[in-house]
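re: the backbone from monday

yeah here it is again, tokenized this time
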């Protein structure tokens, strides 16, 4: 996967995680809040991975 793919996946995970977290808070569902937070962290990690790939020219 290239830099752009990683960054697009990151954005998707951040958005989905944010939605899950908001719904979990609105419905008092701690499990959903935790899942949303975890998905947002996954998105952040993918974003960093994409940035590293961009800096190294997709050589990794």
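seq for it, each position gets an aa:
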């Amino acid at each position: 996967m290239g830099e752009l793919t990683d960054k697009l996946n990151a954005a998707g995970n951040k958005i989905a995680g944010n939605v899950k977290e908001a719904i979990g808070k609105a419905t008092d569902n701690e499990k959903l809040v935790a899942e949303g937070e975890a998905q947002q962290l996954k998105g952040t990690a993918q974003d960093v991975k994409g940035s590293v790939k961009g800096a190294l020219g997709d050589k990794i």
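The longest helix spans residues 30-56. The CA atoms of residues 35 and 47 lie 18 Å apart.
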